[in-house]
Write a structure and sequence with these properties.
By secondary structure, the protein is an alpha/beta fold. 27% of the residues lie in helices and 27% in strands. Strands 6, 7, 8, 9, 10 and 11 form a 6-stranded mixed sheet that branches. Strands 3-2-1-4-5 form a 5-stranded mixed sheet, sandwiched between helices. Strand 7 and strand 8 form a beta hairpin. Residues 39-134 form the Gcp-like domain. GO terms for molecular function: transferase activity. Belongs to the KAE1 / TsaD family. TsaB subfamily. Pfam families: TsaD.
């Protein structure tokens, strides 16, 4: 069955919207959520119209739930809830860092990933993930907001091979040879939300508008 899924990611300063239609992914380039003249609903309508569908043709809303920017997460959560209520369709919630882990898997065929993102000058987001043979990523319970010293302690404890991605690694010295950094993956790419979204549909892991909650970890508006 072919599904139409609209995906929204606004976890950091820039946001992206994507559409999965007939197993093909279409995206709108990232835009700065701080610009007051940006109307996200207009961007959504523009994307849908360019692919010949209307908003009522959507089957699901996929929501990148964080960790990340408080303002961006609140905005994207409100949009997902509004569309879900108006269209009477369910929401799929995917960890923002799993998008980055999925990109590693698609590009490097490696299933163990550490994500570290800069939250403030002194605080960092951290998450450690592993993908099973069915395509599910585990590790959301490791998502945390840490200072540099705590990150360094966690790095020392890693004793098996991992790939690291994210914007924080230029600030964090890594002397653990088990961890290999991929510098080109520093922020989430909305395209990689769909593998987890489709798995959630298969397992009926969907939510109504009143049941979703972003993962803030800290109310930062960077």
């Amino acid at each position: 069955m072919c599904l139409n899924i609209l995906a929204i990611d606004m976890t950091f300063s820039y946001a992206s919207i994507a559409l999965l239609k007939n197993k093909n992914i279409h995206t709108i380039s990232s835009f700065n959520i701080r610009k007051k003249d940006i109307n996200v609903y207009n961007c959504i309508n523009s994307l849908l119209a360019s692919k010949g569908i209307q908003v009522h043709d959507l089957d699901y809303i996929s929501f990148s739930k964080g960790p990340g920017n408080f303002t961006g997460l609140r905005m994207s959560c409100n949009i997902a809830q509004g569309l879900s209520l108006g269209l009477k369709i369910p929401i799929l919630c995917v960890s923002t860092f799993i998008l980055m882990a999925e990109e590693v898997f698609k590009k490097k065929n490696f299933n163990k990933v550490i994500v570290a993102m800069q939250a403030t000058k002194e605080k960092f987001y951290w998450g450690k993930y592993k993908r099973n043979k069915n395509g599910f990523w585990f590790g959301e319970k490791t998502e945390s907001l840490l200072d540099k010293e705590d990150i360094l302690k966690k790095i020392k404890m890693i004793n098996s091979e991992y790939i690291s991605v994210g914007s924080a690694w230029s600030k964090i010295p890594n002397k653990n040879r088990c961890i290999k950094n991929i510098k080109e993956i520093t922020y989430p790419n909305i395209r990689y939300i769909f593998p987890s979204s489709l798995l959630h549909i298969q397992k009926n892991l969907t939510f109504s508008a009143d049941k979703i909650e972003p993962v803030y970890l800290g109310r930062y508006t960077f």
